[in-house]
Amino acid sequence: MLxxxxxxxxxxxxxxxxxxVAFFVAGSAGAGALAxxxxxxxxxxxxxxxxxxxxRLAVLALALLAAVALDSAPARVPGPRRQVDERWLxxxxxxxxxxxxxxxxxxxxxxxxTSAATYAALVAAxxxxxxxxxxxxxxxxxxxxxxxxxxxxRVRTPRQLxxxxxRLARGRQRSARCGALLMAVVCALAVAGxxx
Length: 196
Hints:
Blueprint: H1 7-12, H2 17-46, H3 53-72, H4 88-91, H5 94-107, H6 117-128, H7 131-147, H8 158-195
Helix pairs in contact: 2-5, 2-6, 2-7, 3-6, 3-8, 5-7, 6-7
């Protein structure tokens, strides 16, 4: 998606990159917040009242530990293999595909899942035990996914697009390691919170 919605690509489709990105981020954050609200409400209904804050943090720590293990395994993270429909780029206005693509990515589970952090975020929203808490967690998740398009803000020539692809390829492993490290740190904090 990052390579498709660039100033270069939007100019070629006679669209405005800034507008498309704004709708993309809104769709991603909004869909994430709605999914999070639903999961938070489900958590309120199904989680036992006896599972206090310490218990929820312990479950979150286990989910994060499992996510780190999945991301560290040589196999792909389980989940859908579906991509967004690229034909939308030629069929619809920028705000339509921006909103639609953003919503699909903000939900987290309707397209390819590249990191088990997605599953940890879903568990966190459920454990929030409230619509507002779940919406805040997955709304932030969706917003962060949406804001990744800003990484292509300076792509105005084909050469810059190729350079972006090369940078993304070079940074893939480092990004995965940083993600695993961040999940491990949050896991440690969750463990500390659950016992202390």
